[in-house]
Design brief:
It is built from 11 helices and 10 strands. The chain is of the alpha+beta class. The protein binds zinc ion.
């Protein structure tokens, strides 16, 4: 599921393409929206702003109309130079906004609605969101703690951190990585977690998520630096590689043999080499991580059974919460 950093990055890309640009076409290919007449209702209106709150993305048009999107598990926002091939099939597009230079496409819904601005302010879901972990400005820790303490105190803290009413934007990856960085067992009851410990999770993930939002992934917490605090500091300072593998992959740098191509999802392994420093080309498109990248870049997420990078204890993985999302943790480092 795309987390807050991914959505903020999408808002940045969508906003860059749409704000100030003349919109030449709006299409809603998804039959569900066939009768909504969005193309007619939005015709001639410019996009004023595109912003994100947690995992929600809002495209604000002139004249008090806002498109509200939530990607849930599998949706995606794509921004393509006109004429460039989309990365998902056209039949999966729910919304296409065209300018002279770009196609902005929302794929695979599943939540896409056109609201008046006043409704976005009073919409129960949007109005109920906790402080946004990625947003600019100071993170409101007082509001976060008030919401956390009003929540069910018997819930495990890992579950409470995923509840967007407590803090908006944290998903399964950042929950697992944040609890690890804070040394906090995600199974501990919220009542037994101090305010300082809860805030430590947010303080650990916030700079990393903001960096990821700016850069556009991949999600990386382990910077080849086994001390979590140092890894976070290094990422914040921006002086580390964006992705560090434990060891070079077999065949790296050479054309991939067929078997390797299959393992890495059809892409040649050269793309999995350590990414260049950000400063090398800040305008370069981000690399899309596959699972193997992700495991290489995290302390615990998707590393079930592998040795902890700090203490070598096997990382544990178990479903947590109503949605049974897998949580990953080190039983030695996290208490
Ligand atoms: Zn450990």
């Amino acid at each position: 599921m795309p987390e807050g950093d991914t959505i903020h990055n999408a808002a940045l890309r969508v906003g860059t393409a749409l704000v100030g640009a003349e919109i030449v076409e709006i299409a809603t290919p998804q039959p569900r929206h066939g009768a909504d007449r969005w193309p007619e209702r939005l015709a001639g209106r410019a996009v004023r702003a595109v912003d994100a709150h947690g995992k929600h993305l809002l495209v604000r048009f002139e004249g008090d109309l806002t498109l509200h999107s939530h990607l849930r598990m599998g949706g995606k926002w794509g921004v393509y130079a006109r004429g460039r091939r989309w990365t998902r099939a056209a039949r999966r597009a729910w919304l296409v906004v065209r300018t002279r230079d770009h196609d902005v496409v929302q794929f695979d819904g599943p939540l896409l609605e056109l609201l008046t601005d006043s409704r976005t302010r009073f919409d129960r879901l949007l109005a109920g969101l906790g402080p946004d972990v990625v947003a600019d400005g100071d993170f409101d820790e007082v509001a976060f703690l008030r919401r956390l303490r009003e929540d069910d105190q018997t819930r495990p803290i890992g579950e409470a951190l995923l509840d967007q009413r407590n803090v908006a934007g944290i998903g399964n990856i950042w929950k697992s990585e944040g609890c690890f960085a804070a040394g906090l067992d995600p199974w501990r009851r919220t009542a037994d977690v101090t305010d300082a410990e809860a805030c430590a999770v947010v303080r650990a993930v916030r700079p990393l998520m903001r960096e990821s939002a700016r850069r556009g992934g991949p999600t990386v917490t382990f910077q080849g630096e086994p001390n979590p605090a140092a890894a976070v500091a290094r990422a914040v300072a921006g002086d580390g590689p964006t992705l560090q593998l434990d060891r070079p992959l077999p065949g790296a740098g050479r054309p991939a043999p067929e078997a390797t191509r299959r393992i890495v999802g059809g892409r040649p392994p050269t793309i999995l080499q350590t990414a260049p420093r950000r400063s090398a080309d800040p305008g370069a498109p981000s690399r899309r991580p596959d699972d193997r990248d992700r495991r290489a870049g995290t302390f615990v997420y998707e590393r079930g059974g592998l040795p902890c990078r700090v203490c070598s204890t096997p990382i544990r993985a178990r479903g947590q919460g109503d949605d049974n999302r897998t949580t990953y943790w080190c039983p030695t480092c996290q208490r």
